[in-house]
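Hi W.,

Here's what went into the run:
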Amino acid sequence: MKAVLNSTAKLSAVAALSSYRNNTASAPASPNPDIDVLSPTKSLPPSPNVLRLRLNPISPSEVLRKKYPNPPPLFLCNSPNKDASRNNTIHPIDFTFRSLLPPPASKLGVNEAYQTADPNNAPQRSIDMQSSLPRPGGSRLPAPSSSSGLPQPHQQPLGDLGESTVNSRIGTFGASTIGKPSALKTPAPSRTLAPMKRPASTLDNNETANDRPAQIARSAISQTGPTAAIKASAVRTTGKSAVAAKPGASRIGGAAKPGLARPQTSMNLRNRQEAVPSPTEEMSADEDKAGSAPYQPKKRSQRAGWDIKGRLADLEEDHREMMDKLADTSQQKDMSSMKVIELETIRATLETKNSHLQSELSRDQAELNKCRMELLEEQRLRRVEADDARRQLLNETDELRRKARDDIDNLERKSKTEVNDLMTKHKFELDELRMAFDRLKMEEAENKRRHAEELSSLKATAARELEDAQQRSRNEILELRNKNELEMSTMKNQYQTEIATLRSTCETELVRVRAELKVETAAHNETKDELAIAQKMNKDMRSTISEQSVNSLNMESSARALRDKICSLESIISERDNSIRLRDGNVHDMRQNLETAMAKLRTEETLRRKLHNQVLELKGNIRVFCRVRPPLEAEAEPAKIDFPDQDEEAKDIKLFSMERSTLGVEAVKEHPFTFDKVFNPASNNNIIFEEISQLVQSALDGYNVCIFAYGQTGSGKTYTMTNKDGMIPQAVDQIFRTATQLTEKGWTYTMEGSFVEVYNENLNDLLGKDTDLDKKKIEIRHDKGRTTLTECTTIPLDGPDMMEEVMRRASNNRMVAATKANERSSRSHSVFILKLAGINSITGEKCEGTLNLVDLAGSERLSHSQATGDRLKETQNINKSLSALGDVISALGGGKEVKHIPYRNSKLTYLLQNSLGGNSKTLMFVMVSPLLAHMSETLTSLKFAKKVSQVNIGTAKKVRVDSASP
Ligand SMILES: Nc1ncnc2c1ncn2[C@@H]1O[C@H](COP(=O)(O)OP(=O)(O)OP(=O)(O)O)[C@@H](O)[C@H]1O
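Here's what came out:
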């Protein structure tokens, strides 16, 4: 903006101000037509400290022409029409003065001059607002001293003051230094620089003398402008002396650093400032050019008092010089005004920018708030989502866990079925093969026998036939010969008789015939013919005989044929022999197949062991079964016990007790528990053994197995463990059965059993002599995973019958012990230890397992006050060993972090050291009495069992056998 006010206008403004101060109720009439005194607008509430003036424009063309041969386009920052501004049209300017306090006299200064740059107002006049220095002669000419009110750029460095100073200057030009410049300040500087920007006059009066750095800063501001003030502030901040603020450094266009001289907050603003040519720099150049040295009147020789003319001439000369100087000053002032206007333009631009920035800032803040709200909403949604997801995850985890459990059970069932099927199949196949083999053997023998028989019968038949044929032919020949001979003899005889007869007849007749010989000679001749015929007949007979001979020959040939037949039969027999040999080969192949099948069976047995172990591992190496015994006939009120899932998994049990609240109200309380298996009172020992048979099998497979029965006295521990169909007899029975079956697969097992009692932390041999009870000191030794007991009877078990002997001996000894201490069986732990060692003669595998079946002492807690003497000792020892057992199990569940397992805390845990923990499979029966009277003890037992079931013992390992080469 380039606005130059003529002196009249300024006077009018001053008059308006004073008038306004006197009468704030209404806008005073303007004393000058160029100035409109405006009433406070609606938006600005009436205030004695707010005055709005409208200064009519005055063309600065002359001034501009002087200063700028090519004047830049002028803008009025508050022009309503920017296009008009661009056309060099100057519009009225509104000034708003926020403070109407009169300027201090020192600031108004003597000779506060308001000069117009308007050449139309020439001759230029200086306006003495309030006072002027007395000059020699009493005239009130402006004093040519350094204290003159003439603008002294060096004392008010524009560039360094920034726009606030520009406002002050406008005040100087327009309405004196009326009011504080704060209202006209450019956009607020940064907070750190705010104190530096504050003019000295606005500083608090109540600052103490101790605020030395603040004072230094203030003085720096008043003396040198903000640059020094910044430095002074820096001094204040660092506690250094204000001496560091060198006034010289704050000169206009001097060493003042733009960064410090222009305390802008926005980068844009700074850039804008840098883009606009720095007016202060121009100013500095102008000032340098103008030579702003203060006016000094020429030194002349003192004129005599009477030399009025001379003095007048001096005065006029002085006056001229001063006027010249004044003209220069005025010129400088015009230039300064132009700079001021430029600065005002910049300020207005910056203000606009600032307002834009403010609005942007508020928009951004609103957006930020919106974002924040959105963020909060998003966070809330995310939280809700996360909660949902967590819930879903938990549900899924539960579902998965349930599924995994189901899968494990299914797998277990499946593998059990598979194993059984496999076993059955293999057994069946084996039986079939064996039967096939036997059949083949029998067939082979039968064939051989049949062939031999056939052969012999054929031979005999052939021989017989041959003999018969020969005989027949011989007989025939003989017959024929005899017949022939007979016929021949008969015929001979006949012929001889006939001949004799004939001869006699002939002789008689010879005589007669001789007579008749002649007659008869003829007849004789006839007879001769007849003889010839007979001879012929004889000949025929002979031919018949020869025919018979031929027949005989034929017979011989048939005998030969028979012989051939015999030969062919013999060849058939040899063929059959070959086929038998072939079959023998087949039998051999089948035998080999059988061997392969057996080997496969053995491999599958190993696999089955592995699978079996995996299944048990999946079930957990420590498992807890709960068994509720049925109430006995004589027993009173039963407790309410529910078995919610007996038809499905049979894992849950729910007990109901009456509990009295603190208010004395009785209510039924549910106590739900979940175990690996829950057996209701209807389950018998066989059903229960089915569930543990796999564990028993593990002992055969080379694992250490420990089965406990835990519960209060009378809950059914002994019944479960040592009854005739209890776990111990059934386990031993199964072991023998399985061991026998495994012999086919090359396994041979040796078994030996011990039975000990832990009573009052002492071990007693239940298979030893009853007289040694409580006398022998049995020591426990652990060596490379094997436990041995010194001086303890170990019985080799050759068959299940031996077990009866073992059980009988043990129960005898317990009975003897029971006579020593009442109810001792309930107050001691009995441990049956079955050691199994197996070796496979085919594969060379070896394994060693131990099966420990433990009937624990009654778990009921006897009140110490009731127990005394031996009973107290018993109770203490039972409590000690049971709690030691709990400690060992929970330490085992602690994983690798737990370095020490307190096995040695009781004899029981020390005895079972190798059968508890990572190398073993443990099963605990928690036995439950169904009686209401035992409810409290039952709950205690179930809680203990629950803790045990929550323990996760690591994977069991096979007992390492040094010489094993699996
Ligand atoms: N499942 C069952 N079916 C039938 N009767 C049972 C059953 N369980 C236990 N009993 C009977 O309950 C009574 C107590 O059982 P048992 O002696 O086995 O208890 P216990 O817990 O071993 O007691 P203790 O700690 O005194 O040895 C016995 O008479 C037993 O025959």
